[in-house]
Design brief:
23% of the residues lie in helices and 44% in strands. The protein is an alpha+beta fold. The protein has one domain: Nuclear Transport Factor 2, Chain: A (Roll), CATH 3.10.450.
């Protein structure tokens, strides 16, 4: 995974994008990494079975445009706007 990220060019920073959790047991954290070539969302899942947190999984997502579109649909739907892309 790290070798693949090295093909993205220089890292220009990152920021926490989204978190979701079951408090004290399981967490998902999505970070947006800004590379020269393109942005990448990295999802970390951590799990606490007993006393310490353990890394459960790490995954990469290069489809940031899909996330943006899904987010826009949710916000527009919450505002009561119809989906104009639907055809009869």
């Amino acid at each position: 995974m790290l070798s693949y990220l090295s093909t993205m060019g220089k890292s220009n920073g990152y920021q926490l994008y989204l978190t979701s959790d079951i408090p004290g047991v399981f967490e998902q954290r999505y970070y947006l990494f800004r590379f020269d070539r393109q942005p990448v969302i990295v999802k970390f899942e951590i799990y606490k079975a007993n006393k310490s947190w353990e890394m459960h999984s790490v995954s990469l997502d290069f489809n940031i445009d899909d996330h943006m579109e899904d987010s826009a649909k949710i916000r527009l739907g919450g505002m009561g706007f119809p989906d104009l892309r639907k055809t009869n």
